[in-house]
From TrEMBL:
<feature type="region of interest" description="Disordered">
    <location>
        <begin position="497"/>
        <end position="541"/>
    </location>
</feature>
<feature type="transmembrane region" description="Helical">
    <location>
        <begin position="309"/>
        <end position="327"/>
    </location>
</feature>
<keyword id="KW-1278">Translocase</keyword>
<feature type="transmembrane region" description="Helical">
    <location>
        <begin position="70"/>
        <end position="100"/>
    </location>
</feature>
<feature type="transmembrane region" description="Helical">
    <location>
        <begin position="418"/>
        <end position="439"/>
    </location>
</feature>
<keyword id="KW-1003">Cell membrane</keyword>
<feature type="domain" description="Cytochrome oxidase subunit I profile">
    <location>
        <begin position="19"/>
        <end position="521"/>
    </location>
</feature>
<keyword id="KW-0408">Iron</keyword>
<protein>
    <recommendedName>
        <fullName>Cytochrome c oxidase subunit 1</fullName>
        <ecNumber>7.1.1.9</ecNumber>
    </recommendedName>
</protein>
<keyword id="KW-0813">Transport</keyword>
<feature type="transmembrane region" description="Helical">
    <location>
        <begin position="240"/>
        <end position="264"/>
    </location>
</feature>
<comment type="pathway">
    <text>Energy metabolism; oxidative phosphorylation.</text>
</comment>
<comment type="function">
    <text>Cytochrome c oxidase is the component of the respiratory chain that catalyzes the reduction of oxygen to water. Subunits 1-3 form the functional core of the enzyme complex. CO I is the catalytic subunit of the enzyme. Electrons originating in cytochrome c are transferred via the copper A center of subunit 2 and heme A of subunit 1 to the bimetallic center formed by heme A3 and copper B.</text>
</comment>
<keyword id="KW-1133">Transmembrane helix</keyword>
<dbReference type="InterPro" id="IPR023615">
    <property type="entry name" value="Cyt_c_Oxase_su1_BS"/>
</dbReference>
<dbReference type="InterPro" id="IPR036927">
    <property type="entry name" value="Cyt_c_oxase-like_su1_sf"/>
</dbReference>
<keyword id="KW-0349">Heme</keyword>
Length: 541
């Protein structure tokens, strides 16, 4: 074993107790990664059964009740237990202190507590789904969730409530860390774009998540004590639940997307060997997305009975929030222009993210248009749009981050050829899975049904076939990254020739990250056209 591994956080106490009680942000990030991976494959298993059912027009695999519970389980697990915490809690936890030259997060014990809250809440959710299942959908719409659904709803909501506090603590920790623990000389407009994205995400986590917590608590109280908040049978207003839920849940979209944008902003300059184009505009765009994101929740409710004036205002704001997102896409494109582009796995995932996010964003404009939304609401067009943003965007970026910082995390390289192949399989498998659903939505096929007219069969079969290809692409990294941990060749501290502070320490980093306090870089994206020879060796790993 090499000397750097012997002195790293990986070897600093190898017992289970030392890991479960560790306050090292790097170990906690790995603990998050293990838990999130388990939830990812559990949610993916539910999606597999859903697509098998939809491969034929007759509902002949599971009952209608079981199908409702399956898509609810898939949504609850993937949204609350994977998509929201994936990049902030795993990637952010590991690299954010390294990027600003800090030894750890500002509140290490609070960081460990956030992991326990996340795992505890996640286990409560899984127990509820296993005990009897929930058939409300991941949105828990009232009055259905208060009047007709099973008793497991309360337990599921309690689990979501607990995981919400994990998000709040993580966001608070990141905000204080970025404000107080930057290395001397690292001013705001010298920060990596990933740090900017985590800062904006943390603001949303701290401000929006309490709204969800209060909403969930009111829903639980109504079910247990028949308090008339949302249930019209007790004098409540079911639309109030939608307003409160979407006031959190639309900003939550940016909890998933902003970190992904930060990942792309780190990978693309590194693999194009060019300075990030329009750095200040991108920083302001991140903050603008976080701010305007709080003002557009009503576009989820165009057909719920809002006034025409409210619909018009929310439609306009929905188009406005697309502007800062478009700025980022144009800036990534300009960064690529005339760059010396290297199509290694992280870059393929980053480019895949840009393409899928752009398509998802453009289709969102259709749903922001009042007349079109009336036709497309609750069809498979919404399902496809959501997955292009959340899964095609966030998951592609998560895998890109995983491959980009993998040598830093474990000090080993992964085999580049299967990694590139997996990225391509995921990209094409995703399109085959979800593009036909746009067509199904335009033709009027409603979501949440397990049986459908025969004329929709071909597109559904294509979608199910794509899902099998997509599953293969997701399983491949699990195999070759596990191999890398055991037999992968050692990695030098900076195999990509990147410029961030995290690459100035050993791979894996020592327990306190840096043996000597690093100097703030003059230009965090100060890339030169020369491509380091050491990077060329990585593809042969």
């Amino acid at each position: 074993m090499s000397s750097d591994l012997e002195t790293s956080y990986l070897a600093d106490g190898t017992t289970l107790r030392s890991w479960l009680l560790s306050t090292d942000h790097k170990r906690i990030a790995i603990l998050y990664a293990l838990a999130i991976t388990a939830f990812f494959f559990l949610g993916g298993a539910a999606a597999t059964v859903i697509r098998l059912e939809l491969a034929t027009p007759a509902g002949d695999l599971v009952s209608d009740e079981a199908y409702s519970k399956l898509f609810t389980a898939h949504g609850v697990i993937m949204v609350w237990l994977f998509l929201i915490p994936s990049i902030p809690s795993v990637v952010g936890n590991f690299v954010l202190p390294l990027m600003i030259g800090a030894r750890d997060l500002a509140f290490p014990r609070l960081n460990l507590l956030s992991w326990y809250l996340y795992v505890g809440g996640g286990l409560v959710v899984v127990a509820a789904l296993a005990a009897g299942g929930v058939d409300t959908g991941w949105t828990f719409y009232t009055p259905y969730s208060t009047m007709f659904s099973s008793s497991s709803v309360v337990l599921t909501l309690v689990g979501v409530f607990i995981t919400g506090f994990s998000s709040i603590l993580t966001g608070l920790n990141f905000i204080v860390t970025i404000h107080t623990l930057r290395v001397p000389g690292l001013k705001w407009f010298k920060l990596p774009m990933f740090v900017w994205s985590m800062y904006a995400t943390s603001i949303i986590l701290v401000l929006a998540t309490p709204v969800l917590a209060m909403t969930v608590l009111l829903l639980v109280a109504e079910r247990l004590f028949q308090i008339g908040v949302f249930d019209p049978a007790h004098g409540g207003d079911p639309l109030l639940f939608q307003h409160l839920f979407w006031f959190y849940s639309h900003p939550a979209v940016y909890i998933m997307v902003l970190p992904a944008m930060g990942v792309a902003s780190e990978i693309i300059p590194c693999f194009a060997k060019k300075r990030l184009f329009g750095y200040r505009f991108m920083a302001y765009a991140v903050l603008a997305i976080a701010g305007i994101g709080f003002l557009v929740w009503g576009h989820h409710m165009f057909v719920s009975g809002q006034s025409p004036l409210a619909n018009l205002v929310f439609s306009l704001l929905s188009f406005i929030v697309a502007v800062p997102s478009a700025i980022k896409v144009f800036n990534w494109t300009a960064t690529l222009y005339k760059g010396r582009i290297r199509l290694d796995a992280p870059m393929l995932y980053a480019l895949g993210f840009v393409g899928l996010f752009t398509m998802g964003g453009l289709t969102g404009l259709f749903l922001a248009s009042l007349a079109l939304d009336v036709h497309l609401t609750d069809t498979y067009f919404v399902v496809a749009h959501f997955h292009y943003i959340m899964v095609g965007g966030s998951v592609m970026a998560f895998f890109g981050a995983l491959h980009f910082w993998w040598p830093k995390v474990c000090g080993r390289k992964y085999p580049e050829t299967p990694a590139r192949l997996a990225a391509l399989i995921v990209f094409f498998g995703f399109h085959l899975t979800f593009f036909p659903q746009f067509l199904l939505g335009v033709q009027g096929m409603p979501r949440r049904y397990h049986a459908y007219p025969p004329e929709y069969t071909v597109l559904n079969v294509l979608s199910s076939a794509g899902a099998s290809i997509l599953a293969l692409g997701y399983l491949m990294p699990l195999c070759y990254l596990t191999w890398s941990l055991i037999k992968g060749p050692r990695s030098e501290p900076n195999p990509w020739g990147a410029t961030g502070l995290e690459w100035e320490t050993a791979s894996p980093p020592p327990t306190h990250n840096f043996d000597v306090t690093p100097l703030a870089p003059d230009d965090v994206y100060g890339y030169t056209p020369e491509y380091p020879a050491r990077h060329e060796q990585h593809s042969g790993a």
